[in-house]
Every structure is written in C-alpha cells, then in structure tokens.
Specification:
There is one protein chain. With 49 residues, the chain is of the alpha+beta class. It has a single domain, classed as OB fold (Dihydrolipoamide Acetyltransferase, E2P), CATH 2.40.50.140. It is built from one helix and two strands. It has a two-stranded antiparallel sheet. The radius of gyration is 12 Å and the shape is elongated.
Length: 49
C-alpha cells in the first residue's frame, strides 16, 4: 500500500510505541473523501504525524 502526502487514512496506534507507529486500517479514495465531506462525516482532518 502506497501512502503519499495528502492521502487521507485511518491509523490505529500500536499499544507500545503508539506515538510513532501504527497500522493503516483504511486509505480513502478521493470519491470517498468527497462523499464523507458532503454527508458531514469529515469536517476536520487531524494531522498528528
């Protein structure tokens, strides 16, 4: 799975070393991101890393 700057993903932090590492659970497509925005599910994008 390729992750590029600007991609929208859901990450589950690891129990240990969770501040710097985690598992990518889902990578959204541009169409999915637009749908989430239209429905009000994606208002704020959190960029922690």
């Amino acid at each position: 799975l390729w992750i590029r700057p600007g991609d929208t993903v859901i990450v589950k932090p690891w129990e240990f070393d969770g501040d710097t590492r985690g598992d990518v659970l889902l990578k959204y497509t541009p169409a999915e991101i637009e749908w989430l925005k239209r429905k009000g599910f994606l208002k704020d994008v959190v960029d922690e890393f």
